[in-house]
Design a protein that fits this description.
alpha/beta; Alkaline Phosphatase, subunit A; ten-stranded mixed sheet; four-stranded antiparallel sheet; 20 strands; 15% strand
């Protein structure tokens, strides 16, 4: 006769509670944080180049998954479009130029953004911090009308880091309201994002989209970051490139010289250190909140570095604005404590159009419209992804091994610096890549942006309500 073992009631309750907690943990939607650096080159982070001072990014890369083959568009606005829609910007005629202050138009309002998608998945708090750059000529392009629930930052690119001016007007806002705040733009954005994280509810998932304007021109760094990078006030200062000072005048005065170091590269490096420091504030907020195990953080650059303004993409060829690897292969790291094995390098082909489908699936979103990207979670976990092609724009297309650009074929598995055209040696592969490119080029439509009338000036404080009322 078998003995019946009596299990204490308390133990049964404990087992049930643990099972319930485990089910809750498995079903809980992750917090999502996307952080974009502006014009950060492949050779401009400490984990690629020990001369760069980026301790927070270095630690982040050591704990996360570094994406070795992550592709973006070669300039700012197009990458943001692809990231937020999962679609190539060519579909909207917005691949080859950024949305400038004098442009009328923006990301088409019929398109759903990642923020819109996450809203349907139960993410009540969807905040954007920093640079928008997707349209400021009408209220309908405003982030709060594109799926986000709060906005803190600037509409345009290339603002003065200290005065926050662009085109002679102050471009700094909280939601729809212009605000005046003292401080270095990257630092302000980092602190505001960290505050949002600290004040978030543990019971509700959040989405934070953080778009730093650094280290994009104009060349301006904080004094403390210049000193870390060897600045010597007794030594001369090189003249910095660009005319942003003329565009960003405050009451007619050019203040662009503030924050410049001894050399262009030193100034740029100090700006990168400033971005790293602001990113560190975000990481500290996540750790202090105790939510690292339920928060996925995706860091990337919007394109390669601009060598004109001090960036470096070595050993890759090319720079921002080109479809060579130095323009489109971006620094990117993904971290999710306990879910992704840290300290790994993912070598599978991935890109900016994959961010929306991947994060939408993780969030449990339903009825997602077709995108040009795909869910790459398996790639983040070190698994092989199906063979595919990514469109780089113009004459560029890339696969896991091959790349076609400007009519030349490169074997990236042996030649990541694109030194040798192997089209004649691999005619079949060359033909496949040409066919893939021809298919992508059918997506391209003309640029729909138009310019404001000659002599146009933005309203005081870039008040979008005034811009819309002028129509």
């Amino acid at each position: 006769m078998k003995k019946t073992i009596k299990v204490p009631q308390q133990l049964l309750l404990l087992v049930a509670l643990l099972a319930a907690l485990n089910t809750f943990a498995q079903n809980k939607k992750p917090n999502i944080i996307i952080v974009i650096a502006d014009d950060l080159g492949w050779n401009d982070v400490g984990f690629h180049n020990p001369e760069m001072i980026t301790p927070n990014l270095d630690k982040f890369a050591a704990r996360g998954v570094e994406l070795q083959r992550f592709y973006v568009a070669p300039i700012c606005s197009p990458t943001r479009i692809g990231l937020l829609t999962g679609k190539y910007p060519d579909r909207f005629g917005l691949r080859e130029q950024v949305i400038r202050p004098h442009h009328v138009g923006g990301l088409p309002t019929a398109e759903k953004t990642l923020a819109d998608v996450l809203a349907t998945a139960g993410y009540k708090h969807r905040a954007i911090f920093g640079k928008w750059h997707l349209g400021q000529s009408d209220k309908k392009y405003h982030p709060l009308n594109r799926g986000f629930t709060s906005f803190y930052g600037h509409y345009t690119g290339s603002i003065d880091y200290f005065t926050h001016y662009r085109y002679g007007a102050h471009d700094w806002h909280r939601n729809f309201t212009p605000v005046t705040e003292t401080g270095y733009s990257v630092e302000l954005v980092g602190k505001e994002a960290a505050k949002f994280i600290r004040e978030s509810s543990a019971a509700e998932p959040f989405f934070a989209y953080v778009a730093f304007n650094g280290p994009h021109s104009p060349m301006q760094a904080r004094q403390q970051d210049l000193l870390k990078n060897g600045y010597d006030a007794s030594k001369p200062h090189d003249k910095m490139p660009g005319d942003e000072g003329e565009k960003n005048k405050v009451n007619g005065e050019n203040k662009i010289q503030e924050g410049q170091g001894n050399t262009l590269r030193q100034t740029y490096a100090a700006m990168v250190t400033g971005v790293d420091d602001a990113f560190g504030e975000i990481l500290k907020a996540v750790e202090a909140k105790g939510i690292a195990d339920n928060t996925i953080i995706w860091f990337l650059s919007d394109n390669g570095g601009s060598t004109t303004f001090g960036g470096s993409n070595l050993p890759l060829k090319g720079m921002k604005g080109s479809e060579w690897e130095g323009g489109v292969r971006a620094v990117s790291v993904v971290y999710w404590q306990g879910q992704l094995q840290g300290g790994k390098k993912a070598t599978e082909l991935m890109g900016y159009v994959d961010i929306l489908p991947t994060l939408s699936k993780l969030a449990g979103a339903k009825n997602i419209t077709a995108t040009d990207g795909t869910d790459v979670l398996n790639g983040l976990k070190g698994k092989k992804l199906p063979e595919r092609y990514l469109f780089l724009g113009k004459q560029g297309v890339v696969s896991q091994r091959w790349k076609l650009n400007a009519g030349q074929l490169f074997d990236l598995s042996k030649d990541p610096s694109e030194t040798t055209d192997v089209a004649k040696a691999f005619p079949q592969e060359y033909s496949k890549m040409k066919n893939a490119l021809a298919g992508f080029q059918k997506l391209v439509i003309p640029n729909p942006l138009i310019s404001q009338p000659k002599g146009w000036q933005p309203p005081v404080n870039w008040d979008i309500n005034q811009i819309s009322s002028q129509k």
